[in-house]
């Protein structure tokens, strides 16, 4: 059973469903505890300037102040991001921007936020640059999985910890900035302590999460994190969602809706009113809002999508757990120089979406019960699969629901689902492209042709599912502010 002790932060034990879990709440009122949490850390190096690297470097710099001597960004000197880091206020002249390996060698704590593929290719050089007693921080457990595939391990003389924000980097930064006005605004995070050589790992990792602005931080392990995270990216958070909306768009077109209305009833409905209600009232809140006829239509969609979603999530999880999915990410990264990832927003559906968003009247977007049923059916399938595999409730709720409706879907609503899939991490982009067609095919070829039947037992399980209580507890910890995306 997971547990931790902290003398600097306040650990709370929550009853979540039929379990108890310990968490730490965040907030700017805790920033005065950061010097104690980061005692012994003079330079904190953030390596990488991708979505997470840029967000975390700025949040840590803004939060830590004099708690560390400096937060320094480490990049390759020929990196295309070098000038972007300078524009954000990190400069070679004041020692806050430097060559990647120089920064690693000179830092007491290294937050490694380069792409998974880059980590897989360069981890040996990175490990060689780490000084004994350094705290190595990750925001994804992918490297652990890769090391195990290679028969390798982390150096024995360093701490290894992780803080994994449950949202994209842009959300981590945007909600942190909103937190200046509303204390506690931010993105939830999980944390893990894989190695604690210094005896300071727990306090440092909790301080890191608080400094990022996480409203609440829950415990996991590196292995549990990458298994659930990669499953979520390929499932309901990106790949599954992309396949769902493409199948729904064509389905509504087949029913006679115009292209514009088909988009409103599929993508707009899902990223708009459906996600907003789930965020505030949970999945059961969507169901309860529907009329009797709407609940029947919801049940049709749910009964069709849940079994196929459950099957696909299990396949995804098996591919990740076996190492196949990790290998495919590493191999895909090696091909990128020759075969760059193209954009996925060129199909007619996404062109229609640009027009619909430009003419959007928020109050006129329908909460379509069938779309809700299909989407929530796959979401519940992912939840049940992760429960079956033994993940903590907080991790399941965040990876399957909260990250979607409080971080990713608002960005998709503002800028398009295809836009987000094209602007997230390389690992997520690769996974979404691989698995979205599988969800699309399963729904189009197997689910929709069999519509009409409702599985009463499946709907009864949904109505009384423990996840509704889990989300209720999580909602009580939720900041009062919604993310703002222009």
Automatic annotation (TrEMBL):
Domain of life: Bacteria
Keyword Electron transport: no
Annotated binding of Mg(2+) 1, by residue: 229, 233
Keywords: Amino-acid biosynthesis, Branched-chain amino acid biosynthesis, Isomerase, Magnesium, Metal-binding, Oxidoreductase
Keyword Amino-acid biosynthesis: yes
The KARI N-terminal Rossmann domain, residue ranges: 24-220
Example GO biological process: L-valine biosynthetic process
GO MF: isomerase activity; ketol-acid reductoisomerase activity; metal ion binding
Cofactor(s) demanded: Mg(2+)
Pathway: Amino-acid biosynthesis; L-valine biosynthesis; L-valine from pyruvate: step 2/4; Amino-acid biosynthesis; L-isoleucine biosynthesis; L-isoleucine from 2-oxobutanoate: step 2/4
One Pfam entry name: KARI_N
Binding-site list for Mg(2+) 2: 229
Domain KARI C-terminal knotted: residue ranges: 221-363
Family: Belongs to the ketol-acid reductoisomerase family.
Annotated protein name in UniProt: Acetohydroxy-acid isomeroreductase
Organism: Kribbella albertanoniae
